[in-house]
Design brief:
Helix content is about 55%, strand content about 10%. By secondary structure, it is an alpha+beta fold. The protein folds into two domains: about 5-80, Glutaredoxin; about 90-205, Glutathione S-transferase Yfyf (Class Pi), Chain A, domain 2. It has a four-stranded mixed beta sheet, covered by helices on one side. β3 (about 60) and β4 (about 65) form a beta hairpin. The chain starts with a strand and ends in a 7-residue tail after the last helix. Its main location: cytoplasm. It comes from Stentor coeruleus. GO terms for molecular function: glutathione transferase activity. InterPro entries: Glutathione-S-Trfase_C-like, Glutathione-S-Trfase_C_sf, Glutathione_S-Trfase, Glutathione_S-Trfase_N, GST_C, GST_Theta, Thioredoxin-like_sf.
Length: about 220
Amino acid sequence: MAENLELYADLISEPCRSVVIYCKLSGIAYNFHSIDLIKGEFLSPEFTEINPFQEVPAIVHGDFKLNQSPAIVKYLADAYNIDNPWYPKDIKVRARIDAFLHWHHQNIREKKDEYLLPMIVLPMISDAKAPEGEVEAKLREKAMEAVKNFDWILEATGYAARTERATIADVFAFSELEMLKLVGIDANEFPRIKKWRDEIGAIQEVQEAHEILYAMIANPPQKNN
């Protein structure tokens, strides 16, 4: 399409990384606009005009504005008439990918964030202290539920959407699970996940999008406790 694609994102965000990776894997050119989540730039009047929900990622394509990462991927695939293995035109494969993207919000993303937000994010942006003792242990169990849920998913075919090869569903899952390294959870103790992670993590576009996260893991953010 003739219109420029404007992408508003912060690569520390899992959904943002997934959209960026999809664009790169699909050869979609875009102009990147950094929205620093830690600095609260998503609350600015300028960004709120683009996305009233004040969340990243968001895109502007001509006069069309859209948020929510799965919706963005679906839109871009159709807008640019893309038919590749990451999100193909085959309606049955797409349906499996869509099903996983719906499922993962509650069964991976939410459970992971119940631990990550109080342990890492809130202490970074406020005076909140990271939970300790029994509270921390219970939250960690929630995060481990996310890992175990995904390990169960991989039983079928070894891929997130139960497809015969990797799709954008695997990119979304990888972006989520890698965040757990910030709190010392390495899912490599699960053989199926390790095999899957080695494959997805070896993709150049995936590696590039995760550089900011790996830098943060190497130099953990300061906490206020």
